[in-house]
Amino acid sequence: MRKLFFESLFRGPLTEPAPPADAGQLAELAERLKGAAQRRIGRSLSIRQVDAGSCNGCELEIHAMNNPFYDLERFGIRFVASPRHADVLLVTGPVTRNMKEALERTYAATPGPKWVVATGDCAADGGCFAGSYAVCGGVAAVLPVDLVIPGCPPTPEKMLAGLLALLETVA
Amino acid sequence: MATLTEILSAATSGETPRGWRRAVVDAEGWSRVAAALGAGEGTLMGLWGEPAAVFMAVLDESESAVWILSLNCPEGSFPSVGRVHAPAQRLERTIRDLFGLQPVDAPDRRPWLDHGRWELAQPLAAAPQAPAAEMPPYAFLAAEGPNLHRIPVGPVHAGIIEPGHFRFTVNGEAVVRLEERLGYVHKGIEGLMTGAGLERAARLAARVSGDSTVAYSFAFARAVEAALGIEAPTRAVWLRALMAELERLANHFGDIGAIANDASFSLMLAHCSVLRERVLRVAETCFGHRLMMDRIQPGGVTHDLQADHQGVIRGLIDEARRRFPHLVELYEQTASLKDRTVGTGHLNPALARRFGAGGFVGRASGRGFDCRRSLAYAPYDELLFGAPIVHRGDVNARLWVRVVEVGQSLGLIDQILDGLPEGALTVDSNRLSAAAGEGLALVEGFRGDILVWVRLGEDGTVERCHLRDPSWFQWPLLEAVIDNNIIADFPLCNKSFNCSYSGHDL
Ligand code: SF4
């Protein structure tokens, strides 16, 4: 283990500069929130991720945001285990009918002020699963959505830019 | 009693398609095959339905052949396989939920994927029904005794993972029974497939389980090609394998880090996630998508490997070869970590065999099956790689198989780059057009064997497609391995299996 630590000392950090907050999404958020929630929660965001029927591709990239290259926590954004500790629900998947109630209950358990981010094309509008007997067709069909991060799956960079836009607008 | 091979040979009907065998059986033949499976002959590889028929895929190890048997069910019922062969039970419950076909004398009558929330009941039957007003609450199995209590977990879990419900019954810290309830991410993929054109169907197949998107696209493409009686050009076939091995590498790096992390050893996670990220970035550079989604299509591949990208991949291989051994050493020398993994979550080899456990779950418990070798498909029939088989069956063994497979994939990528033939990337598009046929393919994903069976109609659209994730036969085993372990070790056991929810729920 010592060797590994020693090596890491000289290797320099892998962490990359942050992408700029997504300009389009900043504008979108400003419009949507109309400054209402500004500066209520300080400079940090706690996120509860909810998989509402994803193919698990989006989860892989959400995980990647925690790796040393993107290192999400340096921005004061972190994932929490309980919706009761969360400011943001990061929802993936087309919202399957079998997950609808669990998603609603998670939302109900999240204290306000709270924001819902629909992540991935599925969460945006059901993606390629729209129209199935088993899906509701996007997060907006079930919850009020504040921000959509498109992509299949969105790259960690895109997600980060979206979350930074949210942070800038609400925190 | 006749052997499985004899029963199957007697059932052969008509011409034998290349690489697999096909037979239509009657109820008696169906029951005889079920009995043979129950007696431990052959391996059940899949069981699925259609509005008026059921299908079974059976691996006959003595012949290294996969049989597809079908039974017409004009009465809407078929003899239960699960009655004599437990691995079939969840599959039969699914057939009943989706098609309304009744497995006669099935031991478990509870629904499986249907939670009573869909717009339709028996959504894929010839005549779907309106859903019942209210489905009775799911009856979990009983566990009785003094000092037992139950812990319900999920469907929303604490981490960034897929949803599913686990019902633990514990005595103090020891788990007495774990029962899984899945189906939360059922999207109705097979319903969407029916009637879809090839392009849309390929998109859906790529999204059955995102972590195995390459393997699924690979399997779907091969199944379609088998149905059409065509072959993808050699360069495309080699590029498919290159992507498949990159996907395996990325997932194994991720898993190894995540298993260590579930034993609170986050250093390993950090280092492994760096390697995983490197693989994804190389994938992005070479194939234009980090997970390489939709790069494999029926008939070929969409992206070529540019000459200067060879070096990019070689650089990745070098880095992995330089760094990964340090991480393995770190794992081996950290006693507190091995204390958690050695002896934990033991999977009995007999159970692994009975359930036909694929991938690292099987290979860590003495079952060496690997489609790349056991049912070799191009280009693996021309490549050299070993078969790591371990018998200890614990978390450590499952992690260790992944470690060996990382080395194996690195070696395979080397060979693929060395031998990559020149040539076209896809077949002529007119060869992909309308022709009816049935095709089967098995592809080794990082988690195990993925089975795709497809039937194309005259107009070239998908009449029926079934995609079977390896998790179907691994999930039930997770219930078995947690027995008598402490509940705090569940995350570790679970991660060492890393079953797909989406791949299972479809
Ligand atoms: S957006 Fe794409 S990657 Fe994300 S869950 Fe949907 S299909 Fe999977």
Small molecules held by this entry: iron/sulfur cluster
Helix content of chain B: 40-55%
Across the major sheet of chain B, the strand order is 1-4-3-2
Q: What is the approximate shape of chain A?
A: globular
End-to-end distance of chain B, in Å? 38 Å
Q: Report the oligomer.
A: heterodimer
From the N-terminal CA to the C-terminal CA of chain A, the straight-line distance is: 39 Å
Q: Please trace the helix and strand order of chain A, writing H or E for each element.
A: HHEHEEHEHEH
Q: Tell me the fraction of residues in β-strands of chain B, as a range.
A: 15-25%
In short:
Chain A is 36% helix and 13% strand. Chain A has 171 residues and is of the alpha/beta class.
Could you walk me through the main structural features you see in this protein, from its secondary elements to its overall organization?
The complex is a heterodimer of chains A (171) and B (506). Helix content of chain A is 36%, strand content 13%. Chain A has 171 residues and is of the alpha/beta class. Chain A has a five-stranded parallel sheet with strand order 2-1-3-4-5, sandwiched between helices. The longest helix of chain A is centred in the C-terminal third of the chain and has 15 residues, at 156-170. Chain A is globular, with a radius of gyration of 17 Å. Chain B is of the alpha+beta class. Chain B folds into three domains: 4-104, NADH:ubiquinone oxidoreductase Nqo5 subunit (Beta Polymerase, domain 2, 2-Layer Sandwich); 148-181, no CATH class; 196-497, Cytochrome-c3 Hydrogenase, chain B, CATH 1.10.645. Chain B has 17 helices and 14 strands. In chain B, strands 1-4-3-2 form a four-stranded mixed sheet. Chain B has a three-stranded antiparallel sheet with strand order 7-8-9. In chain B, strands 12-13-14 form a three-stranded antiparallel sheet. In chain B, strand 13 (448-456) and strand 14 (462-468) form a beta hairpin. In chain B, helix 6 packs antiparallel against helix 7, helix 7 packs antiparallel against helix 8 and helix 14 (395-419) runs parallel beside helix 16. Classes of the chains: A alpha/beta (171), B alpha+beta (506). The interface between A and B is large, with 50 and 54 residues. The structure holds iron/sulfur cluster (SF4).
